[in-house]
Amino acid sequence: MRKGDTVRDEERARLSLDVGLPLAEALLTLIEDDDLARDLRGLIQDYSRQRRMRLPAKVLDAVVGLQGKREGTRTSLPVKAITAATNILLDADDESEKGENRITPRKIGSILRRTLHLATERAGQGRAYHMLWDQERIDALRRRFGMDDDRLQRTVQVLREHLGEEQSDI
């Protein structure tokens, strides 16, 4: 056993669990250069972070895109509408078959509350939930995810193409 093997073994186990990339474990066993191993760990961790943030970024795109699609301001958005818009945006970006990986309103509500820290509430007597509009939080999230006005316009355009102008009540 070489010096540092226990550290590498722990690192390999953590990376394979965190990232879910079995290839990471295999590559780290082959690399003897510590600098190269450190660079690979950094690359894998960056990839993992980007992958984890992909869906919350799309949910934010949908939220801001739905607001931008409609004239004026609003105090809430139906989670069902955010779900439909998020699925449209995922389908537009993904090469996979349309509608293959559908995101549910429950998952969207969880992302809104737990990841984006946006409040939701039950609307009326039914089971429908609405996201409460918090402009300061939305602006902070747009900065965090790097959502500039060009990205907003592209999002609004995709939503208009798929939802159509006649569905302006969403």
Question: What does this 3D model show about the protein?
Answer:
Helices cover 65% and strands 6% of the residues. Strands 1-3-2 form a three-stranded antiparallel β-sheet. It folds into two domains: 5-49; 54-167, Arc Repressor Mutant, subunit A (Orthogonal Bundle), CATH 1.10.10. It has seven helices and three strands; from the N terminus they run αααβααββαα. With 170 residues, the chain is mainly alpha-helical. The protein has helices at 5-19, 22-30, 34-69, 79-93, 105-115, 135-144, 149-163, and strands at residues 76-78, 120-122, 129-132.
Task: Chart the SSEs and their pairings.
Blueprint: H1 5-19, H2 22-30, H3 34-69, E1 76-78, H4 79-93, H5 105-115, E2 120-122, E3 129-132, H6 135-144, H7 149-163
Helix pairs in contact: 1-2, 3-4, 3-5, 3-7, 4-7
- The low-confidence parts are 16-20
Query: What is the percentage of strand-forming residues?
Result: 5-15%
| CATH architecture designation of the largest domain | Orthogonal Bundle
Please provide the count of β strands: 3
Number of domains: 2
**How much helix is in the residues?**
55-70%
Number of helices: 7
Could you give the order of the helices and strands?
HHHEHHEEHH
